[in-house]
Amino acid sequence: MVQYLLPQGMRYAALEERKEFYTKEFDVDMATEWFRGGLSGVKFAAIIGRHTGIFLEKYREDAETTIIIDEYKNISDVKEQIIEFLPEAVYYDRNLYNPEDKGVGQELAFDLDPENIECPIHGTLADKMARRQGLGFCEIELDLARKETICLIERLEKQFSGVQTVYSGRGFHLHVFDEDAYKLSFKERLALAQQVKEEGFHIDEWVTSGESRLIRLPYSLNGLVSRIVLPLKKDELESFDAFHDKRCLPQFLTSF
Ligand SMILES: [Zn+2]
Questions:
Q1: Residue 133 confidence (pLDDT)
Q2: Per-residue pLDDT band at 151 (split at 50, 70, 90)
Q3: How do beta strands 172-176 and 163-167 pair?
Q4: Which of 54, 141, 210, 244 is deepest in the core (most CB within 10 A)?
Q5: What is the Cβ-side half-sphere exposure of residue 130, based on CA atoms within 13 angstroms?
């Protein structure tokens, strides 16, 4: 398994660290608050060890699978299931489902990852892929992604009102909570994604078009880089520092 090159201070979280985080630090109240409409119909998902190769031995067979968590009583129950799997990543499904489990809309989102940005040192994504470093990134790329996110927010706010930023651990996610945006068709999403790309933004087209409907759960742990997935206010992004901001640093990195 390839070890991705990561900026200094970022590294894979060990199983014990994932356990410590989800047992002691994972803020279930804040995670619940993220879902303005409540948790009913929300599906969660976990990936145990696809990119890190770190997993509990009993889950070896399922280490690369996307495990859907859609049977739970409440958020504490979701937390218990996460502690059982100790995954490298936790997501939620952006689709809205009605009580009959039929998809009735989708949260619009934009994913801006640092590896998509051309780096003066590491080159383009194609260069990085050729070195099997498709998920690797550096400090410069992360900072360029942050600046580009600020521009993308300004771009999207001309069209939408409920744009929320999240630091994903590697890059940034923009979530659009406008009611109209939930109703966009696949074609409309794809057209918007392509338009935004043409404008020069390095977004993941699959996320915006909705083909890829899972997105990282805010306040969960990104086990690839050992960072807490953190919602940010627009004005915080200007000075946001993923290396020192205590809100995104799990205790296992800061306590000695
Ligand atoms: Zn770089």
A1: 86
A2: very high
A3: antiparallel
A4: 141
A5: 6
Give 6 Cα–ligand 1 centroid separation in angstroms.
Answer: 9
Cα separation, 246 vs 129, in Å, equals: 32
**Does residue 238 register a pLDDT over 70?**
yes
Ligand 1 centroid from CA 142, angstroms:
8
Distance 137 CA to ligand 1 centre (A): 6
pLDDT of residue 256: 62
Residue with the two structure tokens 């087209």: 205
5 alpha carbon to ligand 1 midpoint, in Å? Answer: 10
Query: Can you give the pTM of this predicted structure?
Result: 0.94
Contact status, residue 124 vs residue 134, Cβ threshold 8 Å: no
Task: Please give the distance, rounded to the nearest whole angstrom, from the Cα atom of residue 217 to the centre of ligand 1.
Answer: 26
The DSSP result for 185-253, as a single string, is: -HHHHHHHHHHHHHTT--B-HHHHHTSS-EEEPTTSEETTTTEE-EEE-HHHHTT--TTT-GGGS-HHH
Q: 94 with 212: CB under 8 angstroms? A: no
